[in-house]
Amino acid sequence: MRSHSVVMLVLAFGLCTACEEELPPPPPAKPTVPRPPGSKVVKTPVAYGKKVPCTTLLPADKVSAAFGKQVTVVDRSQTEDDASSICQIKLAGTPPSAKAQQRMWIKNNRVLGVLPGDEICQVTAYCSFIYELPEQKKKCESDGQLVSTEIGTLTCVKPIQAGSEYRYVVSALDPDSRCRIVVNPGPSVIDEATVKQCAKAAVDLIGPESLKVP
């Protein structure tokens, strides 16, 4: 009985030794690549997920001065994760009555334009990414957008047909804040100049001091 147990132990030991011998060797450690001397990590202007309030980014009084008319600014930053801030700019004042709008519609050849209370544009600031000028220019050109340096270091204008009219989306790279600014027109805005006015005001007003997160 004892000899039988010894044989079993020897066999078991032999099997386990064979198992250990068949295990593959651990993979070699990956060599660490040293950072070049003098190099530094480029940080984004705003950490991803942080929101910059519109009261800081685009104060209503400064936007009003840039437009030459009173506007209000509504913060809609929570509606998009990637955006650091989304500010809806509206014409200040009380909307005219339905009858007054009907008269204006007839008088102005069935065009009302932007009325008090209407959205002029919506400014979205993307400040949690690093934007390279050549890459952004290539993206705009491949999308058929009109490229210039009219606003910021790069301006891209995307015409979008809406019925018999065109609407325009303007994006710009802001050299001061290092943000990408995208401006969408309000529902009643069909002229490119108004959207560009919004984009220019945003690029002029937004800077490093505007990006403080509470």
The largest sheet, given as strand count, sense and whether it forms a barrel, is: 7 strands, antiparallel
The percent range for helix content is 25-40%
Distance between the termini: 80 Å
State the strand order across the main sheet: 1-2-3-7-6-5-4
Using only C-alpha atoms, the radius of gyration works out to 30 Å
Q: Please count the beta strands (DSSP E, at least 2 residues each).
A: 7
Helix/strand order, N-terminal first: HHHEEHEHEEEEH
Number of domains: 1
Structure description:
The chain is of the alpha+beta class and 214 residues long. The chain has a single domain, classed as Protein Transport Mog1p, Chain A. The protein is built from six helices and seven strands; from the N terminus they run αααββαβαββββα. The protein has helices at 2-22, 54-57, 60-67, 98-107, 133-142, 192-205; strands at 71-75, 85-91, 119-126, 146-148, 154-162, 165-173, 180-185. It has a seven-stranded antiparallel β-sheet with strand order 1-2-3-7-6-5-4, sandwiched between helices. α3 (60-67) packs across α6. The termini are far apart. The model is unreliable at 1-20 (pLDDT under 50).
How do the strands and helices of this protein lay out in sequence?
Blueprint: H1 2-22, H2 54-57, H3 60-67, E1 71-75, E2 85-91, H4 98-107, E3 119-126, H5 133-142, E4 146-148, E5 154-162, E6 165-173, E7 180-185, H6 192-205
Antiparallel strand pairs: 1-2, 2-3, 3-7, 4-5, 5-6, 6-7
Helix pairs in contact: 3-6
